[in-house]
Amino acid sequence: MRIEDYALIGDMHTAALVGRDGSVDWLCLPRFDSGACFAALLGGRSAGRWLLAPAGGGTCTGRRYRDGTLVLETTWDLPEGCVRVLDFMPPRGEAPDLVRIVEGVRGRVEMRTELLMRFEYGSVIPWVRHREGEMAVVAGPNAAWLQSPVELTHDSRLRGTTASFTVAAGDRAPFVLTWQQSWQGRPRRLEAGEELAATDRLWRRWLGRCGYRGRYGEAVGSSLLALKALTYAPTGGIVAAPTTSLPEQIGGPRNWDYRYSWLRDASFTLQALMGAGYAEEATAWRDWLLRAVAGDPADLQIMYTVDGSRHIPEWTVDWLPGYEGSRPVRIGNAASGQFQLDVYGEVIDCLYQAKEAGLRPDEEAWDLQRALMEYLEGAWREPDNGLWEVRGPRRDYVHSKIFAWVAADRMVRSVERQGQEGPARRWRALREEIHRDVCAHGYDPDRNTFTQFYGSKGLDAALLLIPRLGFLPLDDPRVAGTVDAVCRELTEDGLVLRYRPEVDDVDERRGGEGVFIACSFWLAHALALLGRRERSRRLFERLLSLRNDVGLLSEEYDVRTGRQTGNFPQAYSHISVVNAARALAPRAGTSD
């Protein structure tokens, strides 16, 4: 199954991936970064899955999300009849639930289900019991129940639950899978039809609040639904993706765990949410940010768990072969301990933008901004690992230095425009010092472009953010020169790479990767800001064509094989859809 053959369902605590063959191949319970109970995505059938499809097998003939919702409809149109499966996760109540409803549309279709639960990434096979018309499994702290009017059978060979049944036109066969901590007992039983109606209402009402009215409404709405699904409702944190170890290159080793919240997403996430009219979600994201980064500024991390925890140790799951043999499978992320200078500027920028946008004020936000700035004043000259989390020597990355400038600039603006108290003169002098330093050491006059790091001959896709940040006026020739250099030296088939590891031997990691989807949207955004709107629009619409059949994007795209790669779906990609669509609108991102 290709990465783009999956669809996403979720309850804003966790999420599942459902394949075109009707199999749920990835689900972590009870939250995004918990151990997976279905890990077939990374280990095949034996690592756990839930298949629900016609007995003859095969991929579906069509699927879609119900309009304005994250309720997935998968249809098989067969010679003997037509059947539809509805997949969704209801709003979280007492416990997480996954609901699947089979509907007969035409004729009679033989159906089959196969539920193989394997806790802790496929390593734990639970004890399975069938009683009182339902399946129950238990293993250590995990317990689950499957209720259905269909007769369920224990398959001792598979060590799971199976059922065969027939649906005719007008028939409906619901299945409800519920998880709970084993010592808490069985949660209340749900009625599938009621939960479907409630889930429909939740998503339709939420998307109905969208304020975007431009020509790309479908793409923006689809991306906003994906972002909402990647939100951890109790805290407002947003995971970068609901998966781990989907490879940047099929068969390669660049496989990382993205089930955490990155600080660098903060300002762009805020822009996307506020620009689309979601002040409540933007406030929740801002508040998560404030809680997560509270403490000594020297201890600021680049990422946190969805509840704001700092401890994210990295280890490998040796018993899983990985997606299409892409080893290793990693849990946790060692990059959480890297020093990345840019996150200070991104946090300060996010909090500045939040106040500019009129979000409910937070009394402690300015104190935090000042503490971060005081640390940055003494640390901005330090080399760092860069935003791409390069696992090699620290360098003076131009993007990082520019975000140190952003931090000083936003602090000055906070005093001048927002009435905050602080040493504006000192920050103004620092802003000018950083600007001179970057222009002197991070710019190549022979090629008329900024570079990846001081003294480098390489480029970095993050340089495409310069037009958005105010570092230079849009009509400064160095801005257009940098965008042109990226187009010339850092693209494959017109789409943007993050950087070229072989230039300056910048990265100790081996293995290749595809073009980076968010960076390609950054190029479309930059072109729009430079007034090259037709070229921007063509690129933007080409990027939209890379989405799968239900509108989802992964982290990267392999132009040689025409496949999505990397963790899926990727929040950064969908944030960039929303922001680039707004940049292409002629007036404030509201109409085009």
Give structural attributes.
single chain, 592 residues, alpha+beta, 3-stranded antiparallel beta sheet, 15 helices, 32% helix, 22% strand, elongated, disordered C terminus
Q: What does this protein structure show overall?
A:
The chain is built from 15 helices and 28 strands. It has 592 residues and is an alpha+beta fold. The strands form seven sheets. The chain has a 15-stranded antiparallel β-sheet that branches. A three-stranded antiparallel β-sheet has the order 26-27-28. The protein starts with 5 loop residues before the first strand and ends in an 8-residue tail after the last helix. The C terminus is likely disordered.
How do the strands and helices of this protein lay out in sequence?
Layout: E1 6-10, E2 15-19, E3 23-28, E4 36-38, H1 40-43, E5 49-54, E6 62-65, E7 72-78, E8 81-88, E9 97-116, H2 119-122, E10 127-131, E11 134-139, E12 142-147, E13 153-155, E14 160-168, E15 172-181, H3 192-208, H4 217-229, E16 231-232, E17 237-238, E18 261-262, H5 266-275, H6 279-293, E19 303-304, E20 315-316, E21 330-331, H7 342-356, H8 365-379, H9 398-418, H10 424-441, E22 443-444, E23 449-450, H11 466-469, H12 477-489, E24 491-492, E25 495-496, E26 515-516, H13 517-529, H14 533-545, E27 556-558, E28 563-565, H15 571-584
Antiparallel strand pairs: 1-2, 2-3, 3-4, 3-5, 5-9, 6-7, 7-8, 8-9, 9-14, 9-15, 10-11, 11-12, 12-15, 13-14, 16-17, 18-19, 20-21, 22-23, 24-25, 26-27, 27-28
Helix pairs in contact: 4-15, 5-6, 5-7, 5-15, 6-7, 7-8, 7-9, 8-9, 9-10, 13-14, 13-15, 14-15
Domain GH15-like: 215-581
Keywords: Hydrolase
Domain Trehalase-like N-terminal: 2-177
